[in-house]
Amino acid sequence: MNIKLRRKICVFLVTVFLSLLFSACGAVGRQNQEGPGAPIDDIRQQGRENPLSNDESTAKPKNEKPKEQSQKPDLPKALKSEGNQEPSLKVYITEESQVQDMKFEEYVAGVVAGEIKNDWPVEAIKAQAIIARTFVLQFIEEKGQSKYENAHVSTDIEEAQAWNAGEVNDTIRQAVENTRGQVIVYDGQFARTWFHSNAGGKTATPKEGLNYKDEEPPYIQVVDSPDTGEAVEADAKNWTAKFPKDKVIAAMEKAGKPVKEFNSISIGEKGPSDRAVTIKVGDAEISAAELRLALGTTDMRSTLIDKISLEGNNVVMTGRGYGHGVGMSQWGAYNMANDKKSAEDIINHYFKDIDIVKMWD
Description:
The protein is an alpha+beta fold. It has twelve helices and 14 strands. It has two domains: 88-193 and 327-358, no CATH class; 200-324, no CATH class. The strands form five sheets. Strands 2-1-3 form a three-stranded mixed beta sheet. It has a three-stranded antiparallel beta sheet with strand order 5-4-14. It is globular, with a radius of gyration of 34 Å.
């Protein structure tokens, strides 16, 4: 083999070797860019081959409609107001036995002070203010006026809400002012804004807690409620009560379910929140909510009863929570506010699918 031929063969072999070497290096480089064996779906998840833009990929389906906000209802006919002006109220003050004219928000401040502690977190107090404002508008819309002559509403807690102008402080004034005119509305109507002290961990249906006979409002549902914690008063969380048989017999008579004697007592029907709906007293059966009213709501603190028994001549009950359990739990609101939840968050937790609208400026 001559020298020229050997040179050509060497050049050819070197060229082949270099081509193979560069090809291998390129393959390694591409593998490091995308990860070894990365499937196409993984690459799309990383945003490399998504055929849609960011706006298109996150857009809602075209046929999905946003929830429509309820229309602002008209003020009750009994209240007079021009445009978006705050109405005035005629309030019967039971302690003074007289009717007093006052601005609506002044009345709300007194109610909030009567119903909740004035040193609580401001968001809980704001939630109470919105509830109080809605409560009186719904009351006047439904009833027209107070049972006391020439008054829209009264400070009689058996008719409406508690009221204590003497406990109004700067925190309450701030909460009322910050929620000025705001009310809870469902389907264009003022909501029934029930509230109570402590739900015992779970709120009640109106039938359970109040023996409510009408169709239950869809916005009142059983929800978990954060009612425990070191700040919560012990007797608002758990309670025990002892009632002599004679007192139970008298309560049954008062409630229109007379019994002469009984040797047994037990829970009859239970509701969705595990509250007693009925209680069997001997051969008779009574609404648990009615029995609670007849025995006294500060003694039989709720219908969330864990145990009920007849011990000698006494009926002994143990239970949880304080109040009827329907709507907003005040201690639940307290804990939610301390957990950085807003008044709107609190209200929307306890009242479902509602709107908060502003009735006046």
